[in-house]
C-alpha cells in the first residue's frame, strides 16, 4: 500500500497491519462496550460484538467496484496481491490484536464503559474478515483461518464469489471459515454488471460457479447469502426479481440468508442514486424478505430479525442459528 492509501485509511480510523491488512473497531463493538446494544450477528449466531475484530487481509484489493460499497473503491489497487510482499497469517493475527488493543485504549477511563467487557475485548475471539477488499485474494487465507481455529476463535469471511477455485481448495484442505458469506445483490447478469463493475472476465459465470459450489461446502462451514436491498434508480428489490433470487438461493442451498436494507454511508453516499432515497425502510425490507421466503418454500422460513440494522434472517433450521463449540 502506498503512503496516500495508508494516510486515507488512517483518516478513517483504520489500524494498518503490515503490508496489506487493516483493522477497524466496529461501531457495534463500541456500543456493546458501553452496554448500548449488540450487532445482529450476536443476536442471530451468538458471537460477542465486544470481542470481535473487524479486519481485512486484503485491504485495498478487489476485482469489483460495487456501487453500494461504503468503502473507498476509488482506492482499490486491483486484484493481484502476488506482487505484494505478503505477511504471514501469524503476523497478521498478532498485529491485528495489537492494533485493536491500541484503538481500544481510548476507552480506558471512560465512565460509560463496562470494565469487564473492556478486559475481555483485549483478546478478540471473533474475526470478521470483511472490513474491505476481497479476502480470498490473500494467498494464505486458508492458513489464516486454520490458525484462528487453532486459537479457538471464530471467523466470518465475506466473499464476492469470484474465486470459486480458492473456495474449493479451502474445502479440500478443511480450511473454510466458521461462517462463509456470499454477497448476492443482483438477480441477473445485466444488473450484476451494472452493480459490480467487475474487472474479472465472465464474472457472472464465476459467481454462479460459487453458488453451485456452496452445497458441497455445507458440511464443513455454515453458509450464508447476504443480500443488500437498494431502491430507486439502482433498485435490486423489484417484485419481478423475486423468482430469480429464489432460484439462485436454491442453487446454493445456503443455511441462512440475511436480507438487509442498504445504508447510505461512507463513500457510497456520493454515488449516483445511492443517497438516502436508496435506503428501503424496515417495513420494505420485511415485505421483500417475506416474498423471498414464500418463493423459496420449505424448509426455508423467517427465523429472526434485527430492526435497528434493518435485517431479516431466513434459514433452514432455527436450531442451527447459534454457533456451537464444534462448529468453530
Ligand atoms: S460481527 Fe460484524 S457487525 Fe458484529 S461486531 Fe463484528 S464486525 Fe461488527
Overview of this structure, please?
The structure is a single chain. This protein has 328 residues and is of the alpha/beta class. It has one domain (3-327): Aldolase class I (TIM Barrel, Alpha-Beta Barrel), CATH 3.20.20.70. Helices cover 34% and strands 16% of the residues. It has helices at 3-11, 27-33, 40-45, 89-104, 115-121, 141-150, 164-172, 189-196, 203-217, 242-252, 282-296, and strands spanning 15-17, 21-24, 52-56, 126-129, 154-159, 179-183, 222-229, 256-261, 301-306, 311-315. A ten-stranded mixed sheet has the order 1-2-3-4-5-6-7-8-10-9, with helices on both faces. α4 packs across α6, α7 (164-172) runs parallel beside α9 (203-217) and α10 crosses α11. It is globular and about 50 Å long. The two termini are 32 Å apart. Iron/sulfur cluster binds at residues 26, 28-29, 39, 41, 47, 49, 52, 54, 128.
What is the CATH homologous superfamily assignment? Aldolase class I
Form type? globular
Bound molecules: iron/sulfur cluster
Main β-sheet, in a few words? Answer: 10 strands, mixed
What is the number of domains?
1
**What is the second-level CATH architecture?**
Alpha-Beta Barrel
Please give the share of residues in helix: 25-40%
Mean pLDDT: 94
What percent of residues are in strands? 15-25%
Q: Could you name the CATH class?
A: Alpha Beta
Radius of gyration using CA atoms only: 19 Å
Number of helices: 11
Instruction: Give the end-to-end Cα distance, rounded to a whole number of Å.
Output: 32 Å
| Classification by helices and strands | alpha/beta
Provide the low-confidence segments as ranges: none
Main sheet: strand order: 1-2-3-4-5-6-7-8-10-9
Task: Enter the CATH topology name.
Answer: TIM Barrel
Amino acid at each position: 500500500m502506498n503512503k496516500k492509501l495508508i494516510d486515507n485509511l488512517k483518516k478513517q480510523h483504520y489500524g494498518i497491519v503490515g503490508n496489506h491488512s487493516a483493522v477497524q473497531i466496529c461501531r457495534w463493538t463500541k456500543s456493546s462496550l458501553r452496554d448500548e446494544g449488540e450487532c445482529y450477528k450476536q443476536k442471530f449466531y451468538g458471537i460477542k460484538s465486544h470481542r470481535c475484530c473487524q479486519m481485512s487481509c486484503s485491504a485495498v484489493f478487489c476485482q469489483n467496484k460495487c456501487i453500494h460499497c461504503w468503502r473507498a473503491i476509488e482506492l482499490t489497487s486491483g486484484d493481484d496481491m502476488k506482487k505484494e510482499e505478503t505477511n504471514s497469517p501469524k503476523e497478521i493475527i498478532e498485529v491485528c490484536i495489537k492494533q485493536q488493543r491500541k484503538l481500544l485504549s481510548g476507552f480506558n477511563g471512560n465512565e460509560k464503559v463496562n470494565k469487564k467487557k473492556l478486559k475481555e475485548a483485549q483478546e478478540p475471539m471473533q474475526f470478521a474478515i470483511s472490513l474491505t477488499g476481497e479476502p480470498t485474494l490473500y494467498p494464505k487465507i486458508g492458513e489464516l483461518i486454520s490458525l484462528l481455529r487453532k486459537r479457538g476463535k471464530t471467523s466470518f469471511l465475506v466473499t464476492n464469489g469470484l474465486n470459486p477455485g480458492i473456495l474449493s481448495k479451502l474445502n479440500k484442505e478443511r480450511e473454510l471459515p466458521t461462517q462463509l458469506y456470499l454477497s448476492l445483490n443482483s438477480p441477473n447478469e445485466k444488473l450484476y454488471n451494472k452493480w459490480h463493475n467487475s474487472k474479472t472476465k465472465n464474472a457472472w459465470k464465476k459467481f454462479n460457479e460459487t453458488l453451485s459450489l456452496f452445497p458441497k461446502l455445507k458440511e464443513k462451514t455454515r453458509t450464508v447469502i447476504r443480500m443488500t436491498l437498494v431502491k430507486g434508480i439502482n433498485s435490486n428489490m423489484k417484485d419481478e426479481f423475486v423468482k430469480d433470487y429464489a432460484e439462485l438461493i436454491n442453487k446454493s442451498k445456503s443455511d441462512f440468508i440475511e436480507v438487509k436494507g442498504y445504508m447510505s454511508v461512507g463513500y457510497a453516499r456520493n454515488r449516483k442514486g445511492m443517497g438516502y432515497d436508496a435506503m428501503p425502510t424496515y417495513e420494505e425490507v420485511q415485505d421483500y424478505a417475506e416474498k423471498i421466503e414464500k418463493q423459496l418454500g420449505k424448509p426455508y422460513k423467517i427465523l429472526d430479525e434485527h430492526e435497528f440494522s434493518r435485517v431479516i434472517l431466513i434459514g433452514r433450521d432455527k436450531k442451527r442459528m447459534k454457533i456451537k463449540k464444534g462448529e468453530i
